[in-house]
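Issue 218. Parser rejects a valid record. Input:
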Amino acid sequence: MYNLVIDIGNTSIKVAIYKGEEFVLMQVMEDWDEKEFNSITKGYFIKNVLISDVRYQQKPYLPFLTEKFTCFFADNDLKMPLINRYKTPETLGFDRLAQCVGARKYYATGNLLVISCGTCITYNFVNDQNEFIGGGISPGVDVRFKSLHDYTGNLPLIEIKESFDVMELVGRNTEESIVSGVLHGIQAEIDGIIDSYQENYDKLTCIITGGNWSYFAYSLKNKIFAHPNLVLFGLNSILLYNVTEKN
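Output the parser choked on:
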């Protein structure tokens, strides 16, 4: 029997299949499409599905999915393997919790700092008592590029890429200077925040994830572990936890 997690973000829909905790496959859809979904899941006996959705108000997938599967939804009603100490849990992005659940599965003891590099950069802290405390949020790579363009008169809009050919410290033209300033600025930010956490918490494990993790994972001075699909792994862990609790 297989598990299915669907992570519906603002720009894409990730559909991932797991067998227990073992990753099987992941496919990306731009929008909800029943035929494409059926093609991805064909041949797998799936019973339970966890849906995390930050895009759709009307939930066009609901009649289709609830007819075929036992569905769980990423909200505050789900049982969590972490204790949530966030002061305003109703405002907490579920992806932040899912990342931390996934990280705790990999690193069972000690304090955790999970850094997710996407549209925003989030810093998510779980203490050695298995409590999610909170963290920080700052602008991601794409947001910084757009801000420099939108709030100045002459700076060009830099399109985000899977990799940049030039990422030297000293930019030799305006485009290179923007790339250097943004990427090296974020690198320094991440290292500085890790330093601050290490000063305050012993036995700290640092994990990096998110769509832009590869820009920074290999250039940080601090030791850090990279887990690119940590949200999906965490969502599957939460699904397994709730299925077990329900039974």
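Fixed in the parser; the record now loads. Residues 76-247 form a domain with the Nucleotidyltransferase; domain 5 fold (CATH 3.30.420.40).
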